[in-house]
Amino acid sequence: MNWLKSTLSAAVGTQEPIYGPEAIRSVAQQTAETPYTILNKDLLRWKAYQYTNVETQTFYVMADNGTLVMVQVIYSNIAGIHTTAHFNTKIFDQSGAGNHIWHSDGLSNFMFDEQMVCFGADNLTITLNEEGDSYTIKSTVNPDCLVDLKITRKAPGFTIGKDGTSYFGTDPKNPWGSMTHSFWARCAVEGSITTKEKSYDLAGRGLFIPAMQGMKPHHAAARWNFINFQTPTYSAVMMEFTTPPSYGSTKVNVGAILKDDEIVYAGATNTVTHTSSTTDETSGWPEPTSIKWEWTGKTADGQDLSAEVDGSLGKRLDRVDVMGEVPGFIKTIAGSVAGTKPYIFQFSPAEKLSLKLKIGETETTEEGFMFSESTFIS
C-alpha cells in the first residue's frame, strides 16, 4: 500500500497538509499596482518546465452558424521524468442528445520553435505569426478530425496583474507551485474542421487561453468556474478556482470585459455564485442549474464598472468524467487516497442570456451566447 501511495502521489497525488491561506499568494495581490498586463509575444512563450506541471493552449470557437468547438493542446510533465502531449478536439452536440464529436490523440515527436511560441508534432502545427496577433492550427493527427483554423486577435490580449500568476508555498521567495492564465478574449475565427460525416464551417468568434498549472492540478484547485460570453459588441470572460483546504479554500478570480477592439476592464474583483443546483446522481456533485457572474472594478479612465450575466444554464451540454479513462481499480484507490473525483459540467444555453453593463451612470444591455464550465475535483 505504501508503494501504491507513492506511485499515486507522483501521478495522481495524495492530500497535502493544511498550510493555510497564507501559503498562497493570489494574483489579486499584484493588481493594486498593476491591474493587468498586455500580452506580447514574450508572454506567449511555452514554458516547458522540467518539473510536474500541465501547460495548455485552448481555443474556443463560437461559429456564426451556431457550431460550438474546443481545440486544445496539452503538454504535461510528471515529476520531471515523463513528458507527454495530447491534441484534443470537441465539437459539441447542442441538441441535447450528447452525441459530441470528441477526439483526444497522443502526439509524437512534439517540439517547440526556437522562440518557444510555436508548437509542432507529427501531423500538427500551431503557429503564431510574426506580428504575434494570429494563430494558425493545422492538424491531420486524426484522419476523422482534420483541423484547419486561423484565430486572429481583435482586441489586446492580457494577463491579470504583472504576470498573471498565483504562487503556492510557505516561503514566498521559493514557491513550490503556481497557476497562470492569460487571455485573448475577443478573436475572429476562420477555417473548418472536417469529420467523416461533414465539414464544419467555423467562421465566427473565438477565445484563446494559454494556461500553466505548475503543480499537481488537484493540489492547486478543488473547484473551477469558467465563462466565455460573446455578443456582437462585447466579450466577457471569467476564470475562478478555489484551492483545497490545504490552502484555506481560497478563491482566485480573474476576468475582463472587452468592447470591440479595447479592454474596458480587467482585474481580480469578480464573483461567481451558483444560484441554484441539483445533485448529480452519477457524480454526487451539486451540478449548477443557474449561475450569476459579476464583474466589479474600475475602467482604464477610473470610472466605476459593474457587469453581470445571470440566468438559467438550461440542459447541460456534457458531464465529463475526467478519470473516465483510468482503470477502475486505480480510480477507486485514487479517490480514497487522494480524495479526488473530478467532473466537468459544461453548459451553453439555447436561450440567449444578457450582459448587463454599467459604467459610471451609463447602463447597457446586450444579448449574447455563453459557454461555461463548472468543475468539481475534491
From TrEMBL:
InterPro entries: AttH-like_dom_sf, Ceramide-binding_SVF1, Svf1-like_C, Svf1-like_N. Signal peptide: none annotated. Keywords: Cytoplasm, Endoplasmic reticulum, Golgi apparatus, Lipid transport, Membrane, Nucleus, Transport. The keyword Cytoplasm applies. SUPFAM superfamilies: AttH-like (SSF159245). It is found in: Cytoplasm; Endoplasmic reticulum membrane; Golgi apparatus, cis-Golgi network membrane; Nucleus. One of its GO terms (biological process) is response to oxidative stress. Pfam families: Svf1, Svf1_C. Gene3D superfamilies: AttH-like domain. Residues 215-378 form the Svf1-like C-terminal domain. GO terms for cellular component: endoplasmic reticulum membrane; Golgi apparatus; nucleus. Coiled coil: none annotated. It is a peripheral membrane protein. Residues 54-213 form the Svf1-like N-terminal domain. It comes from the Eukaryota. Ceramide-binding protein that may transfer ceramides from the endoplasmic reticulum membrane to the cis-Golgi network membrane, and is thereby required for the biosynthesis of complex sphingolipids. Belongs to the SVF1 family. This is Ceramide-binding protein SVF1. It comes from Penicillium frequentans.
